[in-house]
Design a protein that fits this description.
This protein has six helices and no strands. The protein is mainly α and 190 residues long.
Length: 190
């Protein structure tokens, strides 16, 4: 599939999302979309199962509820993308940029998150990272709490007196990258 064909699929999908005449849901199962430009694309509820999206620009794309199960998003730019309630089960997100991405309610089980640039305001993503390494009940409780306490900002977390607080800060510090918006108290634990 080339960029022109992809643009047509995206346009028909946008019409489908808006219930406009001629619209058609994007079903891009196993599609090879390496390096394509999907900036600001409306792909709400699109099916991208097993799609190859390596190096694809998905900046500010709307992927709400999209199915990205087993998709390869290695090196994809998802800056500011809306991935709320997206299915990212077993997706490969190696070195993807998730800065400012909305991952609320996203399904991240077994997703490969190696080297991702985090959205430090995504409780869903931070909770998943902590859950994967939690070994004690206190750690599991805090990991789950992080995912549910969406109204807290980093000022609250910095002072939160939980027994596993230092463990969580140390674990999250491993994910800090140069130029990201990690909170200073976490950046200083590196």
């Amino acid at each position: 599939m080339n960029q022109e064909e992809l643009n047509l699929v995206v346009e028909l999908h946008r019409k489908w999302v808006r219930s406009e005449e001629g619209g058609k849901r994007a079903v891009l199962i196993r599609a090879v979309l390496t390096g394509m430009d999907l900036t600001r694309a409306v792909l709400t509820y699109a099916n991208l199962t097993r799609a190859v999206l390596t190096g694809t620009d998905l900046t500010r794309a709307d992927l709400t509820g999209a199915v990205l199960t087993d998709a390869n998003l290695t090196g994809a730019d998802l800056t500011g993308a809306n991935l709320s309630c997206a299915y990212l089960t077993r997706a490969v997100l190696n070195c993807a940029d998730l800065s400012c991405a909305n991952l609320r309610g996203a399904y991240l089980s077994e997703a490969n998150l190696s080297g991702v640039k985090l959205s430090w305001h995504s409780q869903t993503l931070l909770s998943e990272i902590l859950w994967r390494v939690a070994k004690t009940e206190d750690q599991q409780m805090l990991a789950a709490f992080v995912g549910r306490k969406t109204d807290w900002c980093w000022d609250h977390w910095e002072k939160y007196p939980h027994p596993a607080r230092e463990w969580a800060i140390s674990e999250l510090a491993k994910w800090v990258q140069e130029g990201d918006d990690a909170p200073e108290f976490i950046r200083n634990k590196r």
